[in-house]
Design a protein that fits this description.
Blueprint: E1 4-9, H1 16-26, E2 30-32, H2 35-41, H3 49-69, E3 73-77, H4 80-91, H5 96-104, E4 109-113, H6 131-144, E5 149-152, H7 156-173
Parallel strand pairs: 1-3, 1-4, 2-3, 4-5
Helix pairs in contact: 1-7, 3-4, 4-5
Length: 175
Amino acid sequence: MKKIKVAVVGPESSGKSTLVKELASLFQCDYVEEYARQYIQNLDRPYSYRDLQIIAKKQMKQENEAFVNSDHMLICDSSLITIKVWSYDKFGKCEKWIEQQLGMEKYDLMLLCKPDLPWQPDPLREDEHRREYLFHIYSSYLKQNNQSYKVVEGKGVQRTNLAADFVSELLNDLK
């Protein structure tokens, strides 16, 4: 059976990291955490435009290494689409390298998390009142890149089950 790669994306505090871990547990597969969080937590200054390319390169490296070593599936918390949305939103531009890599980035499934969960405060989060706006930006960019995606919504088990159903559909289609 073909190995597959799934990315979970969306605005801040939309349940991405929790969903990634739940799906990895359900499907007994590996996952890659969002590198941006680790990187920014270790900065002794505010992040800059230049940092986004560093984050993008490391995220890609971790994903590629994990995919090679995965048995059947890899679930990724984030993707380059996240860096693109972030870069344009915060700096009004995006490195050409990121845009080029985004065009070559391939996932078998993208799960776009709707921001219908309560906001969870976190020192690294910036956009509590702009989550719906950013959700639409993600959707627009995914369409522009001809990326197939499914919207994940709902709370708790309902949300996890919906995402699991999307992954199961993909697995069944590949049989």
